[in-house]
Amino acid sequence: MKFYVIGDENTVTGFRLVGIEGEAVESADEAREALTKAFESSEIGIILITERVASSVRAEMEAFVFGYSFPLIIEIPDRRGALEGRTSIRQLVNSAVGVKV
Amino acid sequence: MAQFELAPTKTNMMKVKRDLGFALEGWELLDQKRKILVVELMGLIDRAVEAQERVETGLGEAYGALDQATLRMGRREVNLIALGMNMESNVMFSEKRVMGVSLPRVKVEFDDRSPYFASAESSIWLDETIKKFREVLALLGTLAEARISLMRLAREVAKTIRRVNALEKIFIPDQEETLKYIQTALEESEREAFFVLKLVKDRLAQRRGEAL
Lengths: 101, 212
Hints:
heterodimer, A: alpha/beta, Rossmann fold, four-stranded parallel sheet, globular, B: mainly alpha, 11% strand, rod-shaped
């Protein structure tokens, strides 16, 4: 199983330096396409997607994350750092459990 | 809603009692499941948060090094070298099951065949970049494991809580109310029958008195 990265050019180049395939995307449509393609591949185990790209295709992301148990998909910050206003891990858990932890 | 339309008979009472017993048992089990899941969740939260923080700082450094490398060598050179990298990472999955939820375990392995490029033609920042990105990659495995496990567990917890509440707040009180209604009705009819018997006995005694 392999990693696969979807993000801006900079991120993809960075990860390519450690031997990871990826696709640089510029628009939401391209991102959607790359995501679908990555999900169809049986080689890919973990998809890394930059937060900025992920937020442009939020609906698809949710569908993939909750609809499929595989491959795993995680969001990473890109060159410009973490996205503001994203839900933190704790918030995610709080909203699911309904109690503050 | 309690079932008042249920005929107040002994058979129905037994049936409701049995249902209630079953529901209570189920509730207890689900409550236990919820507790176990929450404990598991709490244990994971810190790991996930820590992994996330480490990935973020690691990535920050990696991007910084990449910028330096790009600055010194130019984007084209860096891209060329990136295309020629002879390194492979392999992700291996296994799973751990907690209360019927499957949680992924991730192991990242590297197969690297250095040297990747001539050191004379490249900046030291490029080596630094590769080093940093590799570190991040190993961390990303941990992050993926923790984060996905967390999301799945959280979903399961939410589902279990919903079930526990449905039993605790709706089904069990309903059944209890129905049971109470049937019991009262049965007692009432028992008293009525008793009264009728008394009446008959009195009448019979009266008639016997008249006959004497």
